[in-house]
Amino acid sequence: MESIGVSELRANLMKILNSIRKGESYKITSRGKVVAKIIPPENSSDNAKQKLKEIGKTAVIGDLISPIDTKWEAATK
Fold first, then answer.
1. What is the pLDDT of residues 5-40, one digit of tens each?
2. DSSP-assigned letter for residue 57
3. For the structural domain made of 2-56, what CATH number should be given?
4. How far apart are alpha carbons 40 and 20 in whole angstroms?
């Protein structure tokens, strides 16, 4: 978690908000003391999209168009 001063937050608000949307977190300081923490919201759609992209890199999609009446062999105990 990166620390930034209140004046830097004011000067770069949109840039910092964009990085928060991407998952970054910040400690806000005033005169050297932490006065607040800004973290991204949990379950945000951007985070979900990013996770799906990561899963998509390794996911394997099987045959989706074969007839469904094909018999399958199931493992038995």
1. 999 999 999 999 999 988 899 999 999 999 999 998
2. T
3. 3.40.1620.10
4. 5
